[in-house]
């Protein structure tokens, strides 16, 4: 059982939990993820680790309520216990002093990009960050990102904060004016990561993205998290989650993300007991 | 039934009717009644040199436990089994007895062999698996870490605990049991039985840590330097194979592991009461013909598929599944297409499986395995409408332990290299057994490996 010790509502559907998990907190590296299960009937939910406090044994998890399971998770409160939490899973990000790097986070994707950005900064890189969201209300970790970046840009769809437009608009401008760029890392919704990969492709800038496909066990056992990289099928849980954005087959990734769309809708509609096991087929 | 003056015929296993059971997930085989068991036990010849025992990978003293059944002394009978086998409820259900103990039964030469597996199951159910010696076992002061809580790990854990060692089992998933809980379906092996047998092992003092991925949260070297005197690796065949044919990543293509894990471990058949979804469609193809393929095809019917078809490259004679499983699958309406193999999966505009393109084969010359090699018939491609395709063509070794233990020797497939008789690897204090060493095999073979390794670990610890 894993105790929630802090909860912050970052935006209407964006929540931050600090969870007591000392063994994982001692071990986790930027880029890795955990899988949790709220209760006996719950799904296994993969979440990339947003931060960790090794001395206090805490993991920071930030998630967006997109379906039934993440909504149930969002209803949990401080002092509640998460039944299962396993990790760290996946390969850590490779952190090195490469020179000038651009870290891009979109929406809830700012959360996993933050510890990577911090590590890249600590490794001696010149770090440029670009973070984006729908609107100011949905921007997260702005100050934290600022603290670990040499320069930071903000983009919102409605212009309520920073520049009005997409992270890729800023990225392209920056690339034009500041060559060379040694690495771009982008984490966010699939269309954003795809757009970043397409933007950097003509410049041949190495671009890493973090894939977040549907998963079950997270240890290579089930093969649900297949992604196509170049011509090869890989498992995001053991081979990733980071891959070369220029080699990702984005069409397959987007198609596979929709696999259980119907069921997700059904789960949302079926009941809302909060996952305590008391609901009985209420429609 | 062959006639015999004194001996009753082999007692049939009471089954749920096929038309009924295909609509539920409860157990297909209902188990012997006491009356069945006594009659069946009375068939045993109590051979002086029992050949059946030679056929048992864990060397259970079969005639001895059957003798106790004849005397209705069930607690002694189960204790006799438990001297060698700590998972009788599981083995009684999923061991391929026809190719092991029962194959060697002398009665089988002229009549049918004693139903050893069914008797073992009867005892396990009758006694809830208790009957372990309860006297305090003196502690050796040694600690052993077991990686993986499947059949090999659980067996090694129980044996080592009985020898007085402090055993900790580390399991990656949230429930212990490995393939017994994520793979083998409820209708063939009820999870309450697995839980019961695991609880019995825990009572021996074995500590089971779930949600613990060795290779991620720690490494083998850290276990050895952190207070464990030996490590047993039983991580199983946890990396599903795909065929590498076009269209394999369409939605609706599952590995058997994913399909069965969603259904069994995550209870997807109770969706949305349980929140892990599984979508099945009307027509399901299962590629492969092992026990996992049969489990998948039968599960598909229970999830509501109208048609479930096994697609297999060779013929029925070569099918690796147990005869009983093939028979049960057929009774339930699973169709079987032999000498057929897919070459492409075609998807619809939404990215879902629409059809399966297959090729026909004929049998040619025998290959190195002695089985006649299937040869493609040119121009034989045809298309079958499908909503779901399940790949049940085997699994490779899970890489997480070997990736983080660079000095542990593996073969070119990634299987850990270990001595067959002892489970000894090239690394001091590290032993391995089960599917991670042999590639995908049976529950009892993995248990046999766990047993041998436990013996070798004990010798190593007490040297």
In short:
The complex is a heterodimer of chains A (283) and B (463). With 283 residues, chain A is of the alpha/beta class. Chain A has helices at residues 22-27, 68-74, 110-122, 142-147, 167-177, 190-200, 236-239, 250-257, 261-270; strands at 2-11, 14-20, 33-37, 45-53, 58-64, 81-82, 84-89, 100-106, 126-133, 151-156, 163-164, 183-187, 207-210, 226-229, 232-235, 242-244.
Strand content of chain A: 25-35%
Mean pLDDT of chain B: 93
Order of strands across the biggest sheet of chain B? 3-2-1-4-16
Stated plainly, the CATH topology of the largest domain in chain A is called: Rossmann fold
Domain module count of chain A? 2
Task: Please give the number of β-strands of chain B.
Answer: 16
Helical segment tally of chain B? 18
Uncertain segments of chain B: none
Classification by helices and strands of chain A: alpha/beta
Tell me how many strands of chain A there are: 16
Kindly estimate the percentage of residues of chain B that lie in beta strands according to DSSP: 15-25%
| Residue share in helix of chain B | 25-40%
Assembly of the depicted chains: heterodimer
Silhouette of chain A: globular
CATH architecture of the largest domain in chain A: 3-Layer(aba) Sandwich
Nearest-integer average pLDDT of chain A: 92
Distance between the termini of chain B: 54 Å
Structural class of chain B: alpha/beta
Order of helices and strands of chain A: EEHEEEHEEEHEHEEHEHEEEHEHH
According to CATH, the homologous superfamily of the largest domain in chain A is Nucleotide-binding domain of ferredoxin-NADP reductase (FNR) module
Question: What general outline of chain B do the C-alpha atoms trace?
Answer: globular
